[in-house]
UniProtKB/TrEMBL annotation:
It holds the Pfam family ABC_tran. PROSITE patterns: ABC_TRANSPORTER_1, ABC_TRANSPORTER_2. It is an enzyme of class 3 (hydrolase). It comes from Microbulbifer aggregans. The lineage of its organism: Bacteria, Pseudomonadati, Pseudomonadota, Gammaproteobacteria, Cellvibrionales. This is Daunorubicin/doxorubicin resistance ATP-binding protein DrrA.
Length: 321
């Protein structure tokens, strides 16, 4: 199956010399939900903007549904719907008029039945005659999605889609994204809410300092890189670990009332039996224990931290040299 989005050796350096993207290679499959994660300034929005034809790349090639986004811009852009991070629309227009106008911009013939279905799906039909200025922030966010879908694109980009919306609306949007995927739309989202990626994504990409440091199936990533923590609630608080336990991956938390032991879920021997035996020898008693598996957020934080440390190490080596 051919990728619906193909990014090859993509680099973007701005006029001032700042390199926002460095040799990015990425294929996104039809009908998947792909989450692009990264800290502020990592290059997420620049990557989306290049794919959508808003920003020009310095080098590299991008195709959307087989169309070069530069040489065949109109055909490529017709395949794409974009919901930007910022809310920007004409406040004096009505909801229905602005969605009709967005559809017309792509040369699509009027289709009142489709637009009604779309607005109903987004709980906007009752507001179709309302001016945009009268809508709440959450309704404006829904309207931006309606505009992006007005021309029936095969690809939908959501740049921080739930930024500033309440929990209920966030849940509604998650449900809507799943429905879009079921209808055959490929969804690419960037988000600061890592639980969104964990909840919805089929695959995850992590970008940092303009470099794509990882692309992986979400479940495989969690299984491959995840770990578990054994949390022991102590009867008596500890100020420091005894020397007899110093070789174990233990950490004291909660003002000494909690002992945390980390172990790899891929290892056959977790070491828990040995840990409990040595705790007994050290006369450390606990009243409760439980396990917690690593979340996607834990893995993301570790990846970004490791990438930063590697970058700092290279910089230091370069300065030394």
């Amino acid at each position: 199956m051919n990728p619906i989005i193909s990014v090859s050796n993509l680099t973007k350096t701005y006029q001032g010399g700042f390199t926002a993207l460095r040799e990015v290679n990425l294929d996104i499959h039809p009908g998947e939900i792909f989450a692009l994660l990264g800290p502020n300034g990592a290059g997420k929005t620049t990557l989306i903007s290049i794919i959508c034809g808003i920003v020009n790349a310095s080098s590299g090639l991008v195709k959307a549904d087989g169309h070069d986004v530069v040489r065949d811009y109109r055909a490529a852009r017709e395949k794409i719907g974009l919901v930007p991070q910022e809310l920007c629309t004409d406040s004096f227009e009505s909801v229905l008029a602005t969605v009709e106008f967005s559809r017309g911009l792509f040369g699509k013939p009027p289709n009142p039945a489709y637009l009604e279905q779309l607005l109903r799906q987004l709980s906007l039909w009752e507001k179709k005659d309302s001016r945009i200025m009268a809508l709440s922030g959450g309704m404006k966010r829904r309207l931006m999605i309606a505009k992006a879908l007005s021309h029936e694109p095969k690809i939908l980009f959501l740049d921080e889609p739930t930024a500033g919306v309440d929990v209920e609306l966030r849940q509604d949007m998650w449900a809507m994204v799943r429905e879009l995927r079921e209808s055959g739309v490929t969804v690419i989202l960037t988000t600061h809410y890592i639980e969104e990626a964990e909840e919805m994504a089929d695959r995850v990409g992590v970008i940092n300092h303009g470099q794509l440091i990882l692309v992986e199936d979400k479940e495989t990533l969690i299984k491959r890189m995840g770990s578990k923590e054994l949390l022991l609630q102590l009867l008596e608080p500890l100020e420091c670990l005894p020397e007899t336990l110093a070789d174990l991956p233990l950490e004291i938390r909660a003002d000494g009332h909690q002992l945390v032991y980390r172990f790899d879920i891929q290892e056959g021997d977790t070491g828990i039996t040995n840990l409990l035996r040595r705790l007994d020898k050290a006369a450390i008693d606990f009243r409760d224990l439980q396990t917690r598996e690593s979340s996607l957020e834990d893995i993301f934080v570790d990846l970004v931290r490791d990438a930063r440390q590697q970058s700092d190490s290279k910089t230091g080596q370069g300065e030394t040299a």
